[in-house]
Design brief:
The complex is a heterodimer of chains A (391) and B (374).
Chain A lengths: L3 E2 L10 H12 L10 H21 L6 E4 L2 H16 L5 E5 L4 H12 L3 E5 L9 H7 L4 E7 L11 H11 L4 E5 L18 E5 L10 E5 L25 H16 L1 H20 L5 E3 L16 E5 L5 H10 L2 E2 L1 E2 L12 H5 L4 H5 L1 E5 L6 H20 L4
Chain B lengths: L1 E3 L2 E3 L8 H8 L7 E2 L3 E3 L4 H15 L5 E9 L8 H15 L3 E3 L6 E7 L4 E4 L3 E2 L11 E5 L5 H11 L3 E8 L6 H18 L2 E7 L1 H10 L5 H19 L5 E2 L12 H8 L6 E2 L7 H11 L2 H4 L21 H8 L6 H10 L2 E6 L2 E6 L10 H4 L1
Parallel strand pairs in B: 5-6, 5-7, 10-11, 10-13, 11-12, 13-14
Antiparallel strand pairs in B: 1-2, 3-9, 4-8, 7-8, 12-15, 15-16
Helix pairs in contact in B: 2-3, 4-5, 4-9, 6-7, 7-8
Classes of the chains: A alpha/beta (391), B alpha/beta (374).
Chain lengths: 391, 374
């Protein structure tokens, strides 16, 4: 059966070129970058090149990047490490109600350690009000953490404006951006956007799993969370995941080659889905995508969250799966425990809507034809599934 | 492994296998106790006394203890009889250390020395075995296995009485997920540590379920559905030489497990239905479930086919005549759907290490499924 993979916000298929390069590193250039001999130097070159590529994309210094094991680890180091380093200056943190668990749980951990956290609400499209962020910043606010792109509904937060307002209010307050969903889809320039800490992940951008990236602006103090051999300037001990790091950089480079062209194509595909799916009775879109009154630029090109009343999301998911179409019910990270989505609750979705919401997330590997087939599948399946419901 | 009267000797291949071996033996029904023994050849009473003394000193390197020597002599050619040996052995230990005192009524340590034809064994620890009867001596039964807490425990309990287990799971894609099936396979694999290899029948129940949903009153959906599950399970049971059906039902636990409902459900079967948990409270079932290691898997939150269309107020006192009358609404298609469900049976062989499919849904039903089993 043909496969239509529309769960790219959960993870992506690796670019074949990236996989080839990693294969070569595993089998031939397998040295430890810390070794003194040639094998080590060779491996170090890969890491150095990856640093250069990724720093080039973000327009930051090579030395400002730390490689981690995943996006979650990058978020943890950024939030917990910055809080620990700055706790004498203050104990107040700010975030939003729609962050990824990697951020929310780090915040909850810090609350237990005696920090105070402000959780900001979002509007019905999942957007944070920059003025509200500024207002929440106090003298003792250490850090503000706001995601670039929401993983469930594709809301793109106004991080540039938020960064500017935070610094105007309190220049000492650090700004962390979880860009796991935004990196590879948007041009993110930490220096211009006044971002001090930025997290990204390899496997969301057609790179490998097991690698993440943290940008730490010069002069920002963050305490390491993993201690050991002092690799990466002591910021993140542990032998570098050379193949993973090289793979992540290579995939990022490929994605940023024609980002605007790709995004235009992704947006067109998303619009095809949007148009087709909303032709089905009562189907609605969550988040800013396709909403007439939403600010331009607030919808990610690749994420579409749809509510199909009368059909439980999990059933819809499995029915689509039978036709080779892979989607997600809510956010894949939390679909194992039936905890209702924080994001959907924060935008005011009803209890029934929470149970009937499907996320489709696209990548550059998808095609317009696949979108049409998907719409067709929905149009056939929804009426069938609506015949049988729980009373 | 060597068998003698009343004893099975299991020899470890190296010292390091000890924990693994005792753990495995604790899963073998029919074993009442496991005694890690020290063995010697046939030696003189003096030499034996020295060996036993050293054995006790090694086993109990510190503290003071009361003890009793218990010699069993099946080798009647041995120079001293049991009574004389007890005295000899006790004397030697008392001489060797002042940490031990004799207490023949309630000793802390019972040192058993078995003098057999070709060897002498000594032990002082008895690890309780799982009891029961060896699996297979009691024939075979078909377990209705859901993803819940109860059915794996029910299977375990019947297997304990020496009954080999086959299992049937009712799958309802797309309403249930692949993970729900994986969960059931995992549960089967966990109880297979006790029951041995399980043949798991994965029946696609969706069409039957939807047909009942369309044709019968909603409050009766669960009860009618369960009657069809029993019918299918019984069909598979007969096909696979099972002598009964096993369910995890317990009186009053849910609407379909009232006495009336159990009567109506069981009415479709002619084979006996074994319900080993019938008088158990939920907490008691959970205790066994934790003991046999299925609890953590059972509580994973995947929906099974019993919950997907459940009515808000299902009937608790169904009347057999009414149910039968409503089942007549199914006359048009039900036989065809029943045959289809059997024909598309997916069969997996599950053991403690995992599973493999031996018949895919589209494969024809083999003449006799028993052949491959050997």
């Amino acid at each position: 059966m043909k496969e239509i993979y529309l769960d790219n916000s959960a993870t992506t298929r690796c670019f074949p070129e990236t996989a080839d390069r990693m294969h070569r590193i595993y089998l031939e250039d397998y040295g430890n970058p810390s070794s003194m001999h040639h094998k080590g130097v060779e491996a170090e070159q890969y890491v150095r090149e990856a640093r250069r590529i990724l720093a080039g994309i973000l327009k930051v210094g090579d030395k400002d990047l730390v490689f981690t094991s995943c996006g979650t680890e990058a978020d943890n180091i950024a939030i917990i490490g910055a809080a620990q380093a700055g706790m004498r200056r203050g104990r107040h943190l700010i975030t939003t109600r729609i962050e990824h668990p990697a951020v929310l749980e780090s915040m909850r951990y810090l609350e237990k350690q005696g920090f105070e956290v402000t959780y900001l609400p979002v509007d019905r499209y999942g957007l944070v009000d920059p003025a509200a962020v500024a207002e929440a910043v106090r003298e003792d606010t250490l850090l503000v953490s706001i995601m670039h792109t929401n993983n469930e509904i594709g809301a793109v937060e106004p991080v540039e404006e938020i960064g500017r307002l935070i610094k105007a209010r309190n220049p000492k307050t650090l700004f962390h951006v979880d860009a796991v969903q935004g990196f590879g889809k948007a041009r993110i320039l930490p220096r211009r956007m006044k971002i001090d800490l930025l997290s990204a992940s390899g496997h969301k951008i057609h790179g490998p799993k097991g690698v993440g990236l943290l940008y730490i602006a010069q002069g920002v103090r963050v305490l390491p969370q993993i201690y050991g051999g002092g690799q990466q300037g002591g910021m993140r001990s542990g032998t570098e995941n050379v193949a993973g790091i090289a793979g992540m950089a290579m995939s990022a480079q490929m994605l940023y080659r024609d980002l605007e062209g790709d995004n235009a194509r992704l947006t067109r595909m998303r619009e095809t889905l949007q148009r087709g799916l909303t032709e089905i009775g009562q189907v609605t879109i969550n988040g800013p995508a396709g909403q007439e009154d939403a600010q331009p630029g607030t919808a990610a090109p690749h994420i579409l969250s749809v509510t199909v009343p009368g059909v439980r999301a999990e059933v819809m998911l499995h029915a689509l799966e039978d036709r080779g179409i892979y989607v997600s019910s809510g956010s894949a990270c939390s679909s194992n425990h039936p905890h209702p989505s924080d994001t959907l609750q924060a935008i005011g979705a009803s209890r029934d809507a929470l149970d009937s919401t499907i996320r489709l997330s696209l990548s550059v590997m998808n095609t317009e034809e696949e979108m049409e087939e998907t719409v067709q599948a929905f149009k056939e399946l929804v009426p069938q599934l609506r015949r049988f419901t729980r009373h | 492994m060597v068998r003698t009267y009343g004893r099975v000797y299991v020899e470890c291949q190296s010292d390091y296998d000890y924990e693994e071996v005792t753990e495995a033996l604790q899963c073998v029904f029919g074993i009442s106790g496991i005694c890690p023994v020290k063995e010697t050849g046939i030696v003189s009473p003096e030499e034996l006394a020295a060996t036993v003394t050293q054995f006790v000193l090694d086993e109990y390197p510190d503290g003071t203890h009361t003890f009793k020597m218990h010699t069993r002599r099946s080798n009647k050619n041995y120079p001293l009889d049991s009574q004389e040996m007890n005295a000899e052995l006790g004397h030697a230990l008392l001489e060797a250390s002042d940490r031990f005192r004799v207490d023949v009524h309630t000793p802390e340590i019972m040192v058993t020395v078995e003098i057999r034809e070709d060897r002498i064994c000594m032990y002082s620890h008895v690890i309780p075995g799982p009891g029961g009867l060896p699996v297979g001596v009691g024939g075979k039964s078909m377990l209705l296995l859901s993803g819940g807490i109860d059915s794996p425990v029910a299977g375990y309990m019947i297997a304990k009485r020496g009954v080999k287990i086959d299992a049937v799971y009712f799958n309802a894609p797309p309403y249930t997920s692949e993970r729900a099936l994986q969960k059931v396979i995992d549960l089967a694999s966990q109880i297979a540590r006790y029951t041995g290899t399980i043949w798991l029948h994965n029946i696609n129940f969706t069409d039957i379920q939807l047909y009942i949903y369309e044709k019968c009153p909603h409050e009766e959906l669960t009860i009618i559905m369960r009657r069809y599950m029993m019918r299918i399970a019984e069909y598979l049971a007969r096909q696979n030489e099972c002598l009964g059906l096993i369910t995890g039902e317990s009186i009053g636990q849910v609407a379909s497990q009232t006495l009336t409902a159990l009567g109506v459900t069981g009415e479709v079967c002619t084979l006996p239905v074994f319900r080993p948990l019938i008088g158990f409270d939920k907490e008691e079932i959970v205790t066994v479930s934790k003991k046999i290691g299925t609890f953590e898997t059972s509580i994973l939150p995947y929906e099974d086919c019993c919950t997907i269309f459940v009515a808000k107020h299902p009937v608790t006192r169904p009347r057999l005549d009414v149910i039968k009358r409503h089942e007549e609404n199914l006359a048009d298609k039900i036989d065809e759907l029943f045959e289809e469900a059997i024909r598309t049976d997916e069969i997996l062989i599950v053991d403690k290490n995992g599973s493999r499919v031996v018949k895919h849904r589209e494969d024809p039903m083999p003449g006799s499924m028993e052949q491959e089993n050997g």
